[in-house]
C-alpha cells in the first residue's frame, strides 16, 4: 500500500516537473524572440536617432538693396554672406571648400524664407541655414577629428572654419522637421521620408481593400461551400503554391498584365497595391481557412439545426468566430507586403521620387524601397536616415497592429 | 459533411445562390493568378530553353552564368545547371524552419495556454513586429553580426567557416518567420474548444499533458497551415540571402559553406546589367518556373500528409 | 467593404485625371542612379519642369523598357553602366525607337580595397589575374586550375594572408569591367597568352575573363556599403566596388595601389589608374518635344557646372572626362546626334 503510494507520488512529481519544464520552455522561446526583437530595435534606434537633428549655420544676409523677390539672386546672396563671414579666405579652391559648409539647397532655402516673410526684403538679418551632411556628421560625432587628414571627410582647413563657427555660436543643432515633411533627396541633409510614407500608405490601402475581402471570400468558398473534391484540392494546392512564389515573380506578373494589358500607370501606388494584394492573398486565404476550420462543428450544427440556411450559418455564426484568425492572417500578410521591395522593381516603384504623391495614380515609391535605396547610397550620412526610415516603417506597423488588436479583442472568445 | 439545406418555406433563395457564386469566383481567382504567373514566365523560359537544353538545366550540377555581357566578349560560356540552386534553397529554408518551427510553436502554446490575457495582448503584436521588419534589415544583421560571429566561433573549434555561410542566413531567416508560426498557431490553439481542455484536465492530466495529447493534435490542420506559410516565406525570401549568404552557387549540404538560392539568383539576374535577351537574363524565367514546379510538388506532398492526419474534434 | 472598394475606385479615377502631369521618366543602371538622381533633383529645383522620376532597374532591364516603343508609357531616358549593344539597337529599331542619342557622362573608378587595420596592398594587374583567375599558366606553356591560396604564393612581396576577395556577381557591369580591365590586363602580360589573342580569340577571352569559383572570389551582391562593412569586420579580405564608396569611407577602408597608381580622383581622371569604366545616358529623340523638358534636362546634365571637374557630380564621385571628349559629347547631346554604332 505504502509502496504504491510512493510510486504514484513519484510519478506525480515527475509529471509536475515535466509540466514545469514545458512552461519554462515556452517562456524561453518567447524571451528568445523578444530578445532578438529588442536587439534589432536597440541597434536601429541607436543608429537612427541622429536623423532627428540637423546642424544649422548662422549667416548674416544682406537684402537691403532688394525690394521685390525678382531682384534677388538668392544663391549669390547666401554665397556672399558666407564669404563675408570668413573674409580671410581668398583662394579660389578654398572658397569652393568653404561653400561646402552649406547644403547645396541654401539658395532655395533663402528664397523660401523670403517668400514666407517678405519683411526680410530691404534689410540685413541673421538667418540660419542647413549645413552640409559632412558638417552635420561632424557635429554628431560621426567624424573623428583625430584621424590622419587623408582618412577624414573633413580636411583641416574646413575643421578650422567649423571651430570658428562654433566659437561664434553660429553653429547649432535643431530638430529635423524636414525628415518628416519632405520627399527624397540626393543630399542626405535634405532627404525626407514623407513621400515614401504616403506612397506606402496608398499602396497598403489598395492592397488591403482588394486582398482582405477577396481572401475571406475565397476561404469561405473553399471551407464552407464546397465539398472536398479533386477540384477543391486543385484550388487548395494552387493557393498554397502561390504563397511560396518569390515576390519578384508577382512583379513580373504585374508588369505583364496590370501594366501592359490593363494599361494602368507605371510607378503608381494603384498598381503597387494590386501586385502586393496578389502577393498577400494566399497568406490571407491560408490563415482564414485555418481560422474557419478551427470553428467547432457544433456551432454550425446548432445553427443549421435551428433552421438557418448554410449562408446564414456561415455569415452569422461561423464568420464572426473565425474573424480573429482572419485578422491575424491579414496583419501578417500586410506586414510582409509593407516590407516588400522586389516586386516593386518590375512595376517602376523602385525610383527616386521627390514630390509627394497626390493620389493613387501618381508616381510614388514606398518605405522599404526608400530604405533599400538609402542603404545603397555612398554618402555615410544616409546610414542614420536608413535606420530612421526603418523606425518609421515599424511605427506604421505598430499602428496597423493596434488596429488589429482592437478588432481581434472585439471578436475573440473561447467556448 | 452531410448537412443539407433545409428550407422551411420551400422557396429558393436567389440571393444566396448569387453569393455562393461570388465566393466561388474569388477562390477561382487563385487559378487565374497561377495561370498569369505561368504565362508571364513561359515565353521567356521557352527562349532560354532554345539556348540551353532542358536536361542540362534540370540536372546540371554547376551554376555559373559567367556569360559575356557584351557581344564582342566571347569566352566564359557559363553553365546553367539548377541543381545547386534548388539544393541551396532547400538547405537555407530547412535551417530557417529548424529555428522557427519549435520556437514558433512553443511560443504559440505558451501564449494561448499559459500566458495571462494581458501578457498575450502585449506579446503577440510584439512578435508580429518581427515579421514586419524589412528583410534588408535582417540582411544587414545577418551579414554584419551573425556571420562574423559564426565564423569566429567556428574558428575556435577548428572549423573552416565561409565568411558568408548558409547557417547565418538560415538562422536569421528563421527568426523572421517565427511570427508566421506563432501568431497563426496561437489563433488556432485558442480556437480549440474549452470542453476538450476541461475533459482532459478533469481526468487528472497536467496542463502540459493536455496540450501535448489533446490540444495540439486537435489543432494540427491549422498548425500545419502555419508551417506551410512559414516555409513558403522562407523559400521566397531574397534579401537576407543576397546579403548574408552571397551569390556563389556551391552544391553542398554543409551549412558552414556559402550557398545561394533560386530567388536570390532571379533577382540578381533580372536587375543585372546584361542584355535582356541573353541566356543569362532569360534563365531567371526558367528558374521561376522551376521553383514554381518544385513548390507545387512539395505542396502536393504536404497536402497528402495533412489530409491523412486531419481530424475534427469538438 | 464594398463601400471602401467603390470609394477607392472613384478616388483613383478622379485623381488619375488630375495627376496627368507630364514628367520625364528615366530608367536604368543602379550605378548611374546616384548621378542621374542628383541631376534630376537640381533640374527640378532650378526649372519650372517637374522633377523627373528616376528608376533603378539595372542596365539590361532599363534598355528593354526604353526599347519597348515610342509613347507616353515608355521611358524617355535610360542609364547604362556599359555601352548599348548592336543587338539592342536593332531591337529598339524593331519597336520604332530609331533615333537614340548617346551621352557618355564620365567614368567610374573600380577599386580594390581592404580594411585600414591591415597593410595597404600594392598589386600589379598580373597579381590580380593570378590570384583570381579560374585557370592560370602552369609555367610550361599550358594552364592549370588556380592553385594559389595565399597572396604570398602569387607574389612573395605580398602578405601571406588567404586570398579572399568580395566582388560583384556576373550579372553586374562592375564585374564585367573588372574582368575586362584588371583581369585581362594582367592576363596579357604573359607573352604566350598575348599571342593567343591573335590565334584564338575566344580561348583567350575564356582564359582571361573567367573568375575562380572555389571560394577565393566571393560573389557578394551589389550592395557596396555592405562590402565596405564586411571589409571593416574582416581585415584579411579585399573588396571590389565603386570609387565613390571608397571616398565616403576613407576612415574604414583603403584603396589598393594597382600598377603603382593609387585610386585617387586625379589619377583616375587622368587615366593613369588602370581600372575605370564609362557610364552612359541614352536619350529617345522621338520624345524630345513631346515630353516637356527633355532637351533642358540633357542640357543640365552636360553643363560644366554639372559634369565638369568642379561640377556637383564630381562631388558625388563621378570622374569627369577630358575636356575634348566632354566638348564632343556635349555637342552631340545638344544637337541630339543619333547614335551610329561602328
In a nutshell, what does this entry contain?
Chain B has 314 residues and is an all-alpha fold. Chain B has 11 helices and 2 strands. Chain C has 2 domains: 23-106 and 278-335, Periplasmic binding protein-like II (D-Maltodextrin-Binding Protein, domain 2, 3-Layer(aba) Sandwich); 109-276, Periplasmic binding protein-like II (D-Maltodextrin-Binding Protein, domain 2).
Descriptive account of the structure:
The complex is a heterotrimer of chains A (415), B (314) and C (342). Chain A is mostly helical. Chain A has 16 helices and four strands. In chain A, α8 (194-224) packs antiparallel against α13 and α13 (310-338) packs antiparallel against α16 (382-411). Chain B has helices at residues 14-51, 54-59, 83-114, 117-132, 135-156, 166-190, 194-202, 207-236, 239-245, 262-270, 279-309; strands at residues 63-64, 79-80. Chain C is α/β, with parallel strands linked by helices and 342 residues long. In chain C, strands 1, 2, 3, 4, 8, 9, 10, 11 and 13 form a nine-stranded mixed sheet that branches. Chain C is globular. The N and C termini of chain C lie far apart (60 Å). The model of chain C is unreliable at 10-20 (pLDDT under 50). Chains A and B meet through α1, α8, α9, α10 and α11 of A and α1, α3, α4, α5 and α6 of B. β4 of chain A pairs antiparallel with β2 (53-55) of chain C.
Q: Which structural traits does this protein have?
A:
heterotrimer, B: 314 residues, mainly alpha, MetI-like fold, 2 strands, 72% helix, globular, C: 342 residues, alpha/beta, D-Maltodextrin-Binding Protein, domain 2, 2 domains, two-stranded parallel ribbon
How many alpha or pi helices of chain C?
16
The total strand number of chain C stands at 13
How is the main sheet of chain B built? 2 strands, antiparallel
Indicate the low-confidence ranges of chain C by residue numbers: 10-20
Structural class of chain C: alpha/beta
What order do the helices and strands of chain C follow?
HEHEHEHEEHEEHEHHHEHEHEEHEHHHH
The count of domains of chain C is 2
Count of the separate structural domains of chain B: 1
Helix content of chain C: 40-55%
Average pLDDT over all residues of chain B = 83
Strand order within the widest beta sheet of chain B: 1-2
Determine the CATH topology of chain B: MetI-like fold
Summed over residues and divided by their number, the pLDDT of chain C gives a mean of 86
What is the second-level CATH architecture of the largest domain in chain C?
3-Layer(aba) Sandwich
Q: Distance N terminus to C terminus of chain B?
A: 14 Å
Main sheet attributes: strand count, strand direction, barrel closure of chain C: 9 strands, mixed
Q: Radius of gyration of chain B in whole Å, from Cα? A: 24 Å
CATH class of the largest domain in chain C: Alpha Beta
Percent helix of chain B: over 70%
End-to-end separation of chain C = 60 Å
Amino acid at each position: 500500500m505504502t509502496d504504491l503510494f510512493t510510486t504514484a507520488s513519484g510519478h506525480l512529481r515527475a509529471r509536475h516537473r515535466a509540466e514545469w519544464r514545458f512552461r519554462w520552455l515556452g517562456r524561453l522561446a518567447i524571451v528568445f524572440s523578444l530578445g532578438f526583437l529588442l536587439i534589432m530595435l536597440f541597434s536601429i534606434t541607436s543608429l537612427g536617432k541622429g536623423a532627428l537633428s540637423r546642424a544649422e549655420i548662422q549667416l548674416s544676409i544682406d537684402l537691403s538693396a532688394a525690394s521685390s523677390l525678382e531682384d534677388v539672386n538668392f544663391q549669390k546672396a547666401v554665397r556672399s554672406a558666407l564669404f563675408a563671414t570668413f573674409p580671410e579666405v581668398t583662394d579660389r579652391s578654398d572658397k569652393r571648400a568653404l561653400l561646402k559648409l552649406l547644403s547645396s539647397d541654401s539658395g532655395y532655402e533663402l528664397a523660401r524664407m523670403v517668400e514666407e516673410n517678405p519683411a526680410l526684403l530691404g534689410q540685413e538679418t541673421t538667418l540660419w541655414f542647413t549645413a552640409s551632411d559632412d558638417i552635420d556628421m561632424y557635429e554628431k560625432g560621426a567624424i573623428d577629428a583625430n584621424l590622419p587628414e587623408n582618412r577624414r571627410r573633413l580636411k583641416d582647413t574646413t575643421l578650422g572654419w567649423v571651430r570658428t563657427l562654433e566659437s561664434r555660436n553660429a553653429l547649432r543643432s535643431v530638430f529635423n522637421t524636414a525628415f518628416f515633411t519632405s520627399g527624397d533627396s540626393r543630399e542626405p541633409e535634405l532627404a525626407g521620408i514623407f513621400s515614401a510614407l504616403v506612397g506606402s500608405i496608398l499602396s497598403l490601402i489598395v492592397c488591403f481593400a482588394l486582398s482582405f475581402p477577396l481572401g475571406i471570400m475565397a476561404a469561405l468558398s473553399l471551407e464552407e461551400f464546397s465539398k472536398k473534391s479533386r477540384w477543391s484540392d486543385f484550388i487548395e494546392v494552387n493557393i498554397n503554391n502561390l504563397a511560396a512564389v518569390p515576390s519578384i515573380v508577382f512583379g513580373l506578373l504585374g508588369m505583364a498584365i496590370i501594366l501592359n494589358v490593363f494599361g494602368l500607370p507605371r510607378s503608381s501606388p494603384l498598381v503597387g497595391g494590386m501586385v502586393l494584394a496578389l502577393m498577400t492573398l494566399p497568406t490571407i486565404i491560408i490563415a482564414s481557412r485555418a481560422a474557419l476550420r478551427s470553428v467547432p462543428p457544433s456551432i454550425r450544427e446548432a445553427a443549421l439545426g435551428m433552421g438557418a440556411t448554410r449562408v446564414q450559418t456561415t455569415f452569422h455564426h461561423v464568420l464572426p468566430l473565425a474573424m480573429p484568425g482572419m485578422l491575424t492572417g491579414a496583419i501578417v500578410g500586410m506586414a510582409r507586403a509593407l516590407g516588400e521591395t522586389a516586386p516593386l522593381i518590375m512595376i517602376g516603384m523602385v525610383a527616386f521620387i521627390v514630390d509627394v504623391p497626390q493620389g493613387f495614380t501618381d508616381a510614388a515609391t514606398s518605405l522599404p524601397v526608400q530604405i533599400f535605396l538609402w542603404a545603397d547610397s555612398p554618402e555615410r550620412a544616409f546610414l542614420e536616415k536608413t535606420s530612421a526610415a526603418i523606425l518609421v516603417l515599424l511605427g506604421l506597423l505598430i499602428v496597423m497592429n493596434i488596429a488589429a488588436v482592437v478588432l481581434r479583442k472585439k471578436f475573440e472568445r473561447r467556448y | 459533411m452531410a448537412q443539407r439545406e433545409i428550407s422551411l418555406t420551400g422557396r429558393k433563395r436567389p440571393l444566396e445562390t448569387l453569393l455562393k457564386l461570388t465566393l466561388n469566383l474569388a477562390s477561382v481567382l487563385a487559378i487565374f493568378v497561377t495561370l498569369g504567373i505561368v504565362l508571364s514566365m513561359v515565353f521567356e523560359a521557352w527562349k532560354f530553353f532554345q539556348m540551353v537544353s532542358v536536361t542540362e538545366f534540370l540536372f546540371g550540377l554547376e551554376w555559373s552564368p559567367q556569360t559575356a555581357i557584351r557581344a564582342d566578349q566571347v569566352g566564359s560560356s557559363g553553365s546553367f545547371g539548377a541543381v545547386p540552386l534548388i539544393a541551396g534553397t532547400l538547405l537555407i529554408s530547412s535551417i530557417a524552419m529548424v529555428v522557427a518551427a519549435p520556437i514558433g510553436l512553443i511560443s504559440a502554446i505558451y501564449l494561448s495556454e499559459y500566458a495571462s490575457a494581458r501578457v498575450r495582448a502585449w506579446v503577440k503584436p510584439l512578435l508580429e513586429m518581427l515579421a514586419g521588419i524589412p528583410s534588408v534589415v535582417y540582411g544587414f544583421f545577418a551579414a554584419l553580426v551573425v556571420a562574423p560571429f559564426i565564423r569566429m566561433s567556428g574558428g575556435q573549434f577548428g572549423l573552416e567557416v565561409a565568411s558568408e555561410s548558409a547557417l547565418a542566413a538560415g538562422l536569421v531567416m528563421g527568426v523572421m518567420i517565427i511570427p508566421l508560426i506563432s501568431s497563426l498557431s496561437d489563433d488556432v490553439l485558442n480556437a480549440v474548444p474549452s470542453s476538450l481542455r476541461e475533459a482532459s484536465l478533469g481526468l487528472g492530466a497536467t496542463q502540459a499533458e493536455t496540450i501535448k495529447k489533446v490540444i495540439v493534435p486537435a489543432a494540427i490542420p491549422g498548425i500545419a497551415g502555419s508551417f506551410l506559410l512559414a516555409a513558403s516565406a522562407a523559400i521566397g525570401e531574397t534579401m537576407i540571402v543576397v546579403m548574408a549568404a552571397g551569390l556563389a552557387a556551391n552544391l553542398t549540404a554543409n551549412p558552414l559553406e556559402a550557398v545561394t538560392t533560386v530567388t536570390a539568383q532571379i533577382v540578381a539576374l533580372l536587375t543585372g546589367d546584361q542584355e535582356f535577351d541573353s541566356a543569362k537574363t532569360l534563365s531567371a524565367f526558367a528558374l521561376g518556373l522551376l521553383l514554381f514546379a518544385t513548390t507545387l510538388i512539395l505542396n502536393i506532398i504536404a497536402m497528402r500528409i495533412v489530409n491523412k492526419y486531419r481530424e475534427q474534434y469538438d | 467593404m464594398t463601400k471602401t472598394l467603390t470609394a477607392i475606385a472613384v478616388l483613383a479615377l478622379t485623381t488619375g485625371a488630375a495627376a496627368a502631369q507630364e514628367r520625364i521618366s528615366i530608367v536604368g543602371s543602379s550605378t548611374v542612379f546616384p548621378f542621374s538622381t542628383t541631376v534630376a533633383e537640381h533640374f527640378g529645383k532650378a526649372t519650372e519642369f517637374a522633377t523627373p522620376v528616376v528608376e533603378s532597374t539595372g542596365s539590361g532591364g532599363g534598355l528593354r523598357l526604353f526599347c519597348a516603343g515610342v509613347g507616353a508609357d515608355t521611358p524617355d531616358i535610360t542609364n547604362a553602366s556599359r555601352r548599348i549593344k548592336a543587338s539592342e539597337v536593332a531591337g529598339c529599331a524593331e519597336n520604332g525607337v530609331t533615333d537614340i542619342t548617346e551621352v557618355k557622362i564620365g567614368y567610374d573608378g573600380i577599386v580594390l580595397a581592404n580594411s585600414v587595420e591591415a597593410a595597404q596592398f600594392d598589386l600589379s594587374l598580373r597579381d590580380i589575374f593570378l590570384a583570381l583567375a579560374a585557370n592560370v599558366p602552369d609555367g610550361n606553356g599550358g594552364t592549370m586550375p588556380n592553385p594559389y591560396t595565399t597572396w604570398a604564393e602569387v607574389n612573395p612581396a605580398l602578405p601571406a594572408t588567404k586570398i579572399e576577395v568580395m566582388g560583384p556577381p556576373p550579372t553586374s557591369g562592375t564585374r564585367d569591367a573588372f574582368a575586362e580591365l584588371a583581369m585581362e590586363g594582367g592576363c596579357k602580360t604573359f607573352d604566350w597568352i598575348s599571342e593567343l589573342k591573335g590565334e584564338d580569340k575566344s580561348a583567350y577571352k575564356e582564359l582571361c575573363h573567367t573568375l575562380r569559383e572555389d571560394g577565393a572570389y566571393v560573389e557578394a551582391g551589389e550592395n557596396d556599403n555592405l562590402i565596405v562593412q564586411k571589409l571593416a569586420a574582416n581585415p584579411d579580405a579585399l573588396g571590389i566596388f565603386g570609387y565613390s564608396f571608397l571616398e565616403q569611407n576613407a576612415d574604414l577602408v583603403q584603396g589598393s595601389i594597382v600598377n603603382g597608381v593609387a585610386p585617387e580622383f586625379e589619377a583616375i581622371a587622368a587615366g593613369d589608374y588602370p581600372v575605370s569604366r564609362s557610364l552612359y545616358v541614352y536619350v529617345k529623340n522621338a520624345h524630345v518635344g513631346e515630353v516637356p523638358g527633355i532637351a533642358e534636362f540633357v542640357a543640365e546634365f552636360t553643363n560644366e557646372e554639372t559634369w565638369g571637374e568642379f561640377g556637383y557630380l564630381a562631388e558625388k564621385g563621378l570622374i569627369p572626362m577630358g575636356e575634348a571628349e566632354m566638348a564632343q559629347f556635349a555637342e552631340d547631346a545638344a544637337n541630339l546626334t543619333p547614335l551610329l554604332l561602328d
